[in-house]
Amino acid sequence: MPLFTKARSFLRNIFSPHRGEADLDREVQSYLQLLTDENIRAGMPPTEAQCAARIELGGTEQVKEQVREQQIGNWLRSVLSDFRFGFRQLRKNPGFTAVAVLTLALGIAVNATMFSLVSAFMLRHPPGRDPKRVAVVTSINPGNGFLPDANPVSIPNFLAWREANQVFADTAAADQYRSVSLTPVSQSTAGQPQAIRSAAVSPNYFSVLGVSPELGRTFNDEEIQPGRNRAVILSHELWERQFASDASLIGRAIRLNRENYTVIGVMPSRFHLTGFTPQLWTPLEVTAATQTANARKDRSLLLFARLKPGVTIEQARAEFSALARRAEQDFPEIEKGWGAAVRTFPDFLLYNFGIRNGLAVVMTTVAFVLLIACANVAGLLLARAAGRRKELAIRLALGAGGLRIIRQLLTENLLIAFLGGALGLLLAYWGIAFVRANMNFNEAMSAVPLGLDSNVLLFALAASTLCALLCGLAPALNASRTDVNNNLKEEGRSSSSSHSHSRLRTTMVTCQIAVALFLLVGTGLLFRGIFMIEHQNLGFRADHLLTANVVLDDARYKDASQQSLFVRNLIPQLAQLPGVEAASATSDLPAAGPGTVTFRVQGQPEVPANQQLTASDNVVTTDFFRTAGIPLLRGRAFTEQDTPLAPRVIVVNQEFVNRHFHDQNPLGKQIQLNVSGTASQWSEIVGVVGNVKTYSEGIIDDPQVYEPFLQRPISSFSLMLRTGSDPSALASPLRTAVAQLDAELPLANVMSMSALIDRQKGGNPFFVRVLASFAFLALILAGIGIYGLIAYSVGQRTHEIAIRMALGAKRPDVLRMILRDGMKMTAIGAAVGLVLALPLPSVFDAIFYGLHLREPRLYFLVPMTILVVALLATYIPARRASRVDPMSALHQD
Amino acid sequence: MGSEPTTLLQGTLDLLILKSLVAAEMHGLGISRRIQLITGGTFVVKPGSLFPALHRMEEEGWISSYWGDSENNRRAKFYRLTNPGRKQLEAETKRWGRISLAIAQALRAS
Questions:
Q1: Are residues A186 and A322 in the same domain?
Q2: CB pairs under 8 A between A and B
């Protein structure tokens, strides 16, 4: 019952306070009247009676306030009234409010926009049941490279480790990077074959991850037997796109890799992994052939396993390190130096995507921008607080508690911050749309669900609150320590408090300048790096080239001779297409990261197995160098005479010669290549070509070796067509020519070479441009900060300036004085920023693999820019100061 | 001495108000004078303490109020004891008895 009464009173106090107020007023008045009556009865004259009554009451308002203070729900009422008061204050100063809100809005908008990336990548839950209890096992490649810890595991190791480990309840494996050709069969004719990204998985893969199919079932144990494994599970997207969400597809056959596969299930649409998701799954074959020594070198599997209850990821890591070491002992030639890495599923997805460093850089930058924005707003608040000194002094004198005043000022700041946050969210909505539209440089990125989700909203709320606290703390603390006496006197410009104010603001502006300089230098370095990479000479002509990937499947092209025949038939056909100047095939496109091979030079001493010389290795057809526009420097390129029966020949690049032959003539020297899967043979160097960058983003030249296709046919290669006109016009004739030879062979990634290079660059250009805009935003905000501070201090010093001018100072003198103060502050800030920016190049070297950024000009250019901005920001108020009319300034107070 | 009950003795003021309302329903001034009377002039309750206490106790539900006419036909707000208020008075009286006994005992000890 008491709770009910209290609740009723609470609600009444909050929602209809007026009735209570009126009642209270009446009660107090009635008390006064009764008291007066009592005094009159005691013999006092009426006026004296009333006076005495009032004195005994002690002040109507005070009594009423005391009653109010202990009413239930009073805290809420006073908070609401604080908000109302704050709102009124802000409305009275629209200019100030607008600038403060807009500044914070900009800071919060950029932060929220970038946080949406963090939310999409790092805060997304991978699909399945309890993904943190799923571990992913990969191999660690002893050689350095991109993501060395995420190498796949070989089949023999998978089988051995599955049996031997004690930490996993169930272990599954997936070969994620397969490609199959899907021949759609419609009612009329067979359509064009497509290359579909697929994965081969063990039957327990889906149950380990804890995902159930939306339709049908997953693989059972029988389906990994050869001959019974023509079952396929489709992804939701493929099922929608290619088969029109036909539910009756289960049990029917589709044509994959020239064979009929039965569709047994469809996965739900939410089953996709950050990065590349397979479009369909087939059973993983594990046969005797997959357990030979060669199979050990073929690392293709990622292991997914569910941890036993109570087992930690560290225990799993330790166990697999031990297992990897045992493998090293058992098979030293193959497993030497290779380790095993174990990560939780979410960690692995994040690591594999490789975006964590970029995200860290971006989030740090926008955090700095927000800090600068907060500093600006704090400065504004300090200035306004200085102007309200008298008001605060009066309130303190009337008995307001210091805490109450702080609370009210904080409420005003919260209002500004939340308004800024709301506006910032609106701006962020557009910002996110912009980022999403521009982040489609490859499939993986476009699949990322970027949007204004609940994480971003919470983040914006937290950021606004933090801003309110940061911005408001300094002026609020200052206010509560207001010296009442000094401020109530006419001379409100007491030097002590304005000094502490301006010292604080000067420090803040100096920090802003330092941070802005730091950001600008960092961005400038990145810009320079990207520019250098984009404009370097790759070593071949990337223009006017159409490329396509071909994978000759085992069904028809098991033999080397079949592969060779196909290429021998295809290339001349392609060369004869109208518009084609040259055509060739290559194992890897130029500057696209070829495979490597170890080799020995005849006449040079033998080296132990793990220190052998390596070079990139490309298998190319005869016209390759002409098609790619790689200059032939010495000797000859390959010809039709370089058949399997003729002596083996190779061509090397200039860097190879520089490293291994110095000034000797390389032509005629013999090299023995160790190609996995074939016997090592001695080949003669017959030609030297120009260097081609290994990666389009690489800077160093690596030694390269080229082998003729006829002497070592391969099943997976790329076609290159050089044309005089637009390469994409050749796409359709290319498909037709290939279809004439093999109607079911798909072509993948048919695109021009320049488009391919753009795709390889990924998000770097966009990323750097985004960072640059943030850095400039920081600079602008810092400039506004300088302007605000100087303008304000000039306003404060009008009196002083007027006196100086009356005493004989000329306009230029005043100008110089103000400019000097402003520039001094800027110079200190710039110096601090420069010192902070000195270690940036080394930091970038560590973060961005292979990028060596050195740009001394930047360390001169950026400070100059900042000085110019600061000069401008200082000059405008300085000029106004020098125009002060001494007489009128001295007269006003 | 005309000392006022401070916030530390808030419970004491509540007790006195409840006790004065046992006899009859009264308005605020009446309660104040009655307390003065029954404590032999020791406690003079000023409006600054009385009003907050009355309103608080009303919110707790121990007393209820209504507008009526005073002796001189002035409109005044009268307060009466509720049943929960009576129970509260009993409980507080017992507690006060225990406390004063304990303190007296402590003061007698050597």
A1: yes
A2: 68
In this complex, do A5 and B46 lie within 8 Å of one another by their Cβ atoms?
A: no
Residues 6+ apart with CB under 8 A from A182: A193, A194, A195, A196, A242, A254, A255, A256, A280, A746
**Contact across the interface for A26 and B77, Cβ inside 8 Å:** yes
A77 touches chain B (CB under 8 A): no
Share of chain A above pLDDT 70, in %: 91
What total number of domains does chain A contain?
A: 4
Q: Please state the rounded mean pLDDT for residues A552-557.
A: 80
Phi then psi dihedrals of residue A324, to 5 deg: -65, -40
Residue A521 lies in a domain: yes
Q: Is the dihedral of CA A578, A584, A589, A591 positive or negative?
A: negative
What is the arithmetic mean of pLDDT over B86-102? Answer: 91
What is the pTM (predicted TM-score) of this model?
0.72
Q: Which two three-digit tokens encode residue A118?
A: 């963090």
CA-to-CA dists, residue A211 to A54, A121, A174, A204, angstroms: 80, 20, 15, 11
For residues A264 and A232, the answer to whether their CB atoms sit within 8 Å is yes
Interface membership of A9 toward B (CB under 8 Å)? yes
- Closest alpha carbon to A627 in A582, A590, A670: A582
CB contact under 8 A, B47 and A57: yes
The verdict on a CB contact (< 8 Å) between A69 and B52 is yes
Tell me the chain B residues in contact with residue A37 when contact means C-beta distances shorter than 8 Å.
Answer: 72, 74
pLDDT tens-digit map of A558-610: 888 888 899 999 999 999 999 899 999 999 888 887 877 778 888 777 777 66
Sorted by where each begins, the domain ranges of chain B are: 9-108
Q: A318: domain range?
A: 148-353
CATH fold group of domain B9-108:
Arc Repressor Mutant, subunit A (1.10.10)
Under DSSP, the state recorded for A848 is: S
Distance from CA of A66 to the nearest CA of B (A): 6
Q: Are A718 and A573 in contact (CB under 8 A)?
A: no
Task: Return the DSSP state at A151.
Answer: B
CB burial of A199-213 (b: ≥16 within 10 Å; e: otherwise) equals: bbbbbbbbbbbebeb
Co-location of A594 and A729 in the same domain: yes
Token pair 């005691």: residue: A42
Residue A747 lies in a domain: no
Mutate which of A1, A23, A32, A34 to disrupt the B interface (most B C-beta within 10 Å)? A34
Minimal C-alpha gap between A495 and chain B (Å): 41
Chain B residue nearest residue A32, CA to CA:
B29
Structural domain includes residue A869: yes
In this complex, do B77 and A27 lie within 8 Å of one another by their Cβ atoms?
yes
Measured between CB atoms, which of A28, A30, A62 is closest to B74?
A30
- Residues A687 and A642: beta-carbon distance below 8 Å: no
What are the start-end ranges of the E strands in A323-429? 339-344
Beta strands in A308-393 (DSSP E): 339-344
- Reported ipTM: the value is 0.88
